[in-house]
Amino acid sequence: MASANKTMGGAFERIGGVNALPVILMIIALPLVGSFSSWMTLTVAGLAMGMMIFLMASGLSLIFGLMDVLNFGHSAFISFGAFIAASVLAALAFWVESDSVLLNFLALFLAVSAAALFGLIAGWFFERVIIKPVYRDHLRQILITIGALIIAEQLILTIWGGAPIPVERPAILQGSIIIGDVAIEIYRIFAFLLGLAAFLALYLVLNRTRVGLLIRAGVENREMVEALGFRIDRVFIAVFMAGSALAAIGGSMWAGYQGLISATLGSELMVLVFIVVIIGGLGSIEGSLLGALLVGLLGNYVAFIFPKLSLASNMLLMLIVLLWRPWGLRPAVKH
Amino acid sequence: MPATAMSAVPHVSGRTRTGRLVIYAIALAIGLALAVAPFIFPDVRSQEVAARICVFIVLVASYDLLIGYTGIVSFAHTMFFGLGAYGAAIALKQMGPGWDAVFLGGGAGILAAAVLAALIGVLSLRVKAIFFAMVTLAAASVMLVLASQLSEITNGEDGLVYAIPALFKPATKLLTNANGRVETLFGVALNGKLALYYFVFLTSAAMFWLLTRIVRSPLGSVLEAIRENEMRTEALGYRVVAYRTAVFVIAAIVAAIAGVVWAVWLRYTGPASTLSFSIMIDILLMVVIGGMGTMVGSIIGVTLMSLAQYYLKDLMAAAAEATASIPLLPHVLEPDRWLLWLGLLFILLVYFFPAGIAGTLMRKGAH
Predict the structure, then answer these.
(1) d(CA A136, CA A333)
(2) Alpha carbon B314 to chain centroid, angstroms
(3) Which residue, among B342, B354, B189, has the nearest Cα to A150 in the 3D structure?
(4) Cβ proximity of A254 and A51 under 8 Å
(5) For a tag site, which of A173, A227, A258, B31 has the least CB within 10 Å?
(6) Any CB–CB contact under 8 A between A230 and chain B?
(7) What domains lie within chain A, and their CATH numbers?
(8) What is the secondary structure of A96-164 as a DSSP string?
(9) Which chain B residue has its CA at the smallest distance from A147's CA?
(10) Is the pLDDT of residue A5 over 60?
């Protein structure tokens, strides 16, 4: 039994270990789904959803890894990002509907940038005012960020009202590409590519730049970095702002994906984001990507194969991962 | 110098004692008011408030056992509350209004809560507090979704409406006078409604008493030791994970019992009345406002919040109307926005008075 386990483990490591899990999941799902075209549609949807969740989760994970701060208010950035992007798109309705590709993209770019800018500014404010006084005190951190979340949700209700808001997608991102008998929504491809670009940018910054080196060193051992004379608190705030901006971008993409957003969007997504961070392992963006893709793909497959199970599926996934690897699939820090 | 230090001691303990006295006096007054609530506040709305306060004191006190005494942050407390409530509700719906349904269904709900708590505890209490908070949040949200999805048994978002045991029907006469009419005491009819209120009150009082016994027991001391220094407690030979799991299960059982009582009182059980995240937020606010790590704090926190919830909204509506001509302000003062102000208050409390009302007053001058 033990040797069988070992050979299985060896084979598992050879094909890429935990990194291969999304691919393994795709392969297992193919016979269960039955038809190739449905499988393809579900896979693309799952990947797109995964990438958007990755945008939201990566910031949370990095913030936790670096500062040991778990921000329950993170979902506020997601909601605000979604609502701000929706408002910008609504204000630029003329550009959004026009046939010009340039104007389309300009409108989208402005919407996403507005969300990101909000994330940066609000992130700065949040870190300085809300979180800084309670560093290293987990209980109060959780309580205070929950309080901030309550306020943020109420502010959204005050500004945008309780009724769901429709979100206009730019004309160029509407409709689908049809390859053979497989229809793929263009928006999903775009969301996937944007997420991928964000992942690559994060990966390069973390692994190829001096700031990235500092961040990774801070995640490993904060005291040592401080002892070597670096101002880690400046790195903190930069990471916090970047993480919040990523969440806002994720929210803005989600708004376009859903087409209709309401004030509860953030708290609904928050559970998914938490599950992703737990599955992936705190503090690593590779882990977040892995977790997000697994959650996105599994959610779509299960919704198709066993619709009743769809919402419990992510919970089950988390349970299995926690039993197998209590620290997540690819944790950056082992506490 | 030593002389002044010496003289400061009785002064300090004197102030501490007054603070303590004030808190216990307030808690006692609230308890007495709840005990005679049907007689001094006979209108229907006040009865609702009083019963809600009773049930939530149990719920919040059991949550305080986790967050205040042991230092565990869980977001699954409404899940256990809901399991108890749904257990009783489903049985009452399926088996008809009898005590057997209350005990069987409620018992099943309580058992389910205990088993689930043990599972979650064993699985995830060995890791960091923050991890545990996330796991419980995920579990609670799945339970909420399940309750609204399994509509064959739970009737989905609409929830269940059912009849309760005959003893509690308003038409039931506990005592009749010579004419066969229902007897009155201080002008209050001795009917089933009164019996129902006292069922809620007495069960809640018993549960609260049980919780105070637990925190005063050796178990309570171990829990506080875990909160203060986990490593040291472990080194002293206490198995921290086992204790944490045990207290998580105890809190879950008490919450589920509160759920059963709540289901019987309301005659309605739905996701919004038991499982929703806003109830979890209410519990958190009540614990923090009252004072974490003090059982009496839960009485004060729950009473303040419940009164605010029922009566502050009226006040805010009036304020919104009065400021109708000023831009933006009426929007923020709308009664639906009351959580905005509570959220602000909550943050300020956590910053400046992390011990809450009871904790701050009781420790006043102690340091």
Answers:
(1) 16
(2) 23
(3) B342
(4) no
(5) A227
(6) no
(7) 45-324 (1.10.3470)
(8) HHSS-HHHHHHHHHHHHHHHHHHHHHHHHHIIIIIIGGGTT-HHHHHHHHHHHHHHHHHHHHHHH-SS-
(9) B343
(10) no
Among B73, B138, B331, beta carbon nearest to A271: B138
Tens digit of pLDDT for each residue in B110-122? 999 999 999 888 8
b (16+ CB within 10 A) / e for A232-253: beebbbbbbbbbbbbbbbbbbb
Question: A58 near A132, Cβ under 8 Å?
Answer: no
Nearest CA to A276 out of A252, A255, A298 is that of A298
CB contact under 8 Å between B342 and A150, yes or no, is: yes
Q: ipTM higher than 0.85?
A: no
**Domains of chain B (ranges plus CATH)?**
2-363 (1.10.3470)
Q: Inform me whether the C-beta atom of residue B272 falls under 8 Å from chain A C-beta atoms.
A: no
Say how many residues make up chain A: 335
Amino acid at A327: W
Best residue of B74, B78, B127, B141 to probe chain A, by most A CBs closer than 10 Å: B141
A271/B339 Cβ within 8 A: no
- Does A144 contact chain B (CB < 8 Å)? yes
Tell me: the pLDDT tens digits for A24-81?
888 888 788 778 888 888 888 899 999 999 999 988 888 887 777 878 888 899 999 9
Q: What is the CA radius of gyration of chain A?
A: 20
Distances (CA, A) of A165 to A262, A265, B218: 6, 11, 55
| A120 Cβ neighbours under 8 A, 6+ residues apart | A241, A242, A244, A245
Nearest-CB residue to A142 (from B73, B332, B339): B73
pLDDT-flagged residues of chain B (< 70): 1-16, 126-128, 172-178, 180-185, 187-188, 327-333, 335, 364-367
Closest-approach residue (CA) in chain B for A138:
B130
